[in-house]
């Protein structure tokens, strides 16, 4: 079922590079129409304002939903990696989650953020946006963060039953809105390219690419890792890192077959599955 609220009749925002007008409120109807053969078509749950799209996904799963796409205009208590808050603007960013019933071995869960981040990067190429990726879940543009992903699952035994993938991207945010939210190391597509974007088309493009990669997963894991390394912003560079055990610096070599990172530390190769790059 597609939950579609009536259209916004307020002020319109003119896109600088085109002669069309961009509606400041999301249209789930436009998202639905733009999906290209996706199984999420007609499974869009729209909530104008909610704390977290991922949290709402688990709520719907608890009510018996098998899959769906959750979209909101205003996510005011978003969750990021390591229990950090994800702060997004109203009507400027896109914040959405998709959930599906999918059985995966628990040892593959480290690679889900890799697959998701790559899917976002690939989808943005449709808009001539050449983003890069930072391990494990950041989307980077011109050395600043424009977005991130958060992957969650419930596990029975050694296998997942459901996975939930949350995605947030700064799209039509201006500099003032990011400064007001104290996001000094963040940017947006509008800031970098000087234009407003139809956020619905970006959402549908990401969902299409993500679903395609998920349908092939894990058989496409080697290609996912190869393609992720090709667009990693710190591949073969010296980095500072930390986790709950240690901190240090080393040379980031890439990913192992299970999605963990390979770093040369004091001339010795080390592997980490839980790591924050500082």
Structural overview:
- This protein has 278 residues and is α+β, with helices and mostly antiparallel strands.
- The chain has two domains: 218 residues, Bira Bifunctional Protein, Domain 2 (BirA Bifunctional Protein, domain 2, 2-Layer Sandwich), CATH 3.30.930.10; 40 residues, Roll (SH3 type barrels).
- It contains seven helices and 16 strands.
- It has a seven-stranded mixed beta sheet, sandwiched between helices. A five-stranded antiparallel beta sheet has the order 15-14-13-12-16, with no helix packed on it. Strands 1-2 form a two-stranded antiparallel sheet.
- β3, α2 and β4 form a beta-alpha-beta unit.
- α1 packs across α6, α3 crosses α6 and α3 crosses α7.
- The longest helix is centred in the C-terminal third of the chain and has 18 residues.
- It is globular, with a radius of gyration of 19 Å.
Secondary-structure topology with pairs:
Blueprint lengths: L12 E2 L6 E2 L5 H7 L9 E7 L2 H10 L4 E9 L2 E2 L5 E2 L6 E9 L10 H13 L7 E3 L3 E4 L2 E13 L2 E12 L4 H6 L8 H5 L5 H18 L4 H10 L7 E5 L4 E9 L5 E5 L2 E5 L3 E2 L1
Parallel strand pairs: 3-4
Antiparallel strand pairs: 1-2, 4-7, 5-6, 7-11, 8-9, 9-10, 10-11, 12-13, 12-16, 13-14, 14-15
Helix pairs in contact: 1-6, 3-6, 3-7
What can be said about this structure in brief?
The chain is α+β, with helices and mostly antiparallel strands. It is built from seven helices and 16 strands.
Q: Low-confidence runs (pLDDT<50, min 5 residues)?
A: 1-21
The amount of helix comes to: 10-25%
| SSE class | alpha+beta
Tally of alpha and pi helices: 7
Strand content: 25-35%
Overall geometry: globular
Give the tally of β-strands: 16
């Amino acid at each position: 079922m597609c939950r579609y609220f009536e259209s916004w009749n307020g002020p319109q925002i003119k896109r600088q590079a085109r002669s069309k007008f961009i509606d400041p409120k999301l249209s789930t109807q436009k998202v639905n129409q733009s999906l290209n053969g996706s199984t999420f078509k007609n499974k869009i749950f729209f909530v104008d304002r909610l704390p977290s799209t991922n949290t709402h996904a688990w709520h719907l799963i608890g009510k018996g939903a098998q899959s769906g796409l959750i979209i909101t205009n205003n996510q005011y208590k978003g969750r990021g990696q390591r229990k950090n808050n994800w702060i997004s603007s109203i009507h400027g960013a896109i914040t959405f989650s998709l959930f599906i019933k999918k059985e995966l071995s628990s040892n593959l869960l480290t690679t889900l953020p890799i697959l998701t981040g790559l899917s976002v990067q690939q989808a943005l190429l449709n808009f001539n946006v050449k983003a890069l990726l930072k391990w494990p879940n950041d989307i980077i543009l011109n050395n600043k963060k424009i977005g991130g992903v958060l992957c969650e699952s419930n596990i029975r035994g050694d296998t997942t039953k459901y996975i939930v993938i949350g995605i947030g991207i700064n799209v039509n945010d201006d500099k003032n809105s990011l400064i007001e939210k104290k996001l000094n190391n963040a940017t947006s597509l509008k800031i970098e390219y000087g234009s407003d974007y139809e956020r619905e088309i970006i959402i549908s493009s990401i969902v299409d690419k993500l679903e395609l990669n998920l349908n092939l997963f894990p058989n496409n894991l080697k290609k996912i890792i190869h393609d992720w390394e090709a667009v990693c912003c710190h591949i073969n560079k010296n980095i500072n890192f930390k986790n709950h055990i240690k901190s240090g610096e080393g040379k980031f070599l890439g990913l192992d077959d299970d999605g963990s990172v390979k770093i040369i530390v004091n001339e010795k190769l080390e592997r980490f599955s839980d790591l924050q790059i500082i």
